[in-house]
Amino acid sequence: xxxxxxxxxxxxxxxxxxxxxxxxxxxxxxxxxxxxxxxxxxxxxxxxxxxxxxxxxxxxxxxxxxxxxxxxxxxxxxxxxxxxxxxxxxxxxxxxxxxxxxxxxxxxxxxxxxxxxxxxxxxxxxxxxxxxxxxxxxxxxxxxxxxxxxxxxxxxxxxxxxxxxxxxxxxxxxxxxxxxxxxxxxxxxxxxxxxxxxxxxxxxxxxxxxxxxxxxxxxxxxxxxxxxxxxxxxxxxxxxxxxxxxxxxxxxxxxxxxxxxxxxxxxxxxxxxxxxxxxxxxxxxxxxxxxxxxxxxxxxxxxxxxxxxxxxxxxxxxxxxxxxxxxxxxxxxxxxxxxxxxxxxxxxxxxxxxxxxx
Length: 358
Fold this sequence. Notes:
Elements: E1 5-10, H1 14-25, E2 30-36, H2 39-48, E3 53-56, H3 65-75, E4 80-84, H4 92-99, E5 104-107, H5 113-119, H6 121-132, E6 172-177, H7 181-190, E7 198-203, H8 210-220, E8 224-227, E9 238-241, E10 247-253, E11 256-262, H9 274-284, E12 289-293, H10 302-310, E13 314-318, H11 328-334, E14 340-342, H12 344-357
Parallel strand pairs: 1-2, 1-3, 3-4, 4-5, 6-7, 6-12, 7-9, 8-9, 12-13, 13-14
Antiparallel strand pairs: 10-11
């Protein structure tokens, strides 16, 4: 038998602990090695047995989750998933958690907790798998325990039947990322000058979290960063980040680009989906687009990036060494959808140089 992923649940709510226990133990590849109602008890358990992944609340007695996270990362780094209701209330604590080493954030409702966890089973178990894969140790997994329809971008935007958009003068950059992407995105966007080409980003994260992330980025970057709203114009010097739980498409009217937000089913198990953004860029920007696929588990964005490349766009994948999880970029590389494979610290410069030549 393959070794299971051992998870430690740290949450002061017995209801949450039990709900998470049921969700995780329903997956044959995951086991719960222990549960704790606060970080002090969790620390004693870790001294006896080190988990592969910790699921951690933020608001708890005796020590808050962020303080515990900082100690873990300073003393014995372990992949941590934040599961907190704070993600529904502005997400500043959740953003702080990502900055201090957490690999993922799952929003937890104040009411209807048990039902939420049951409905989010795939998302939670996928997050645990992604977290476990951030370790140096190689993990081999079988098929997902819960097989559900995995929709393609066809569910939101049918594939193009005609020629790609011809080359014009305005270039637009589209970016997709997931696990580990918030810090990777910050690294890239901080390097962009104030007149950089318009950037449109899909980062897998919860609703009510993307605005806080965009606001934080706007404070520290030369470009303007905001959570996208329907019909926002894609302009030089501006970064638009897809709202959590909404698909975002690139559209074009005459010579101007704008974004369209749509509801709809999960695509590649995500909403927003990178595949949806990339397909729309292939259709409405064609040779005018640059595409970047970054760290993240799964294959969302790989097929869309292939469509972009076929439409004449220049495409870049983050390399394995600099990825937290080399899933999405690797899948795009396997499809031969990538023109360049670059480390994180080379991507911004490559984009700017390419924009001057396309």
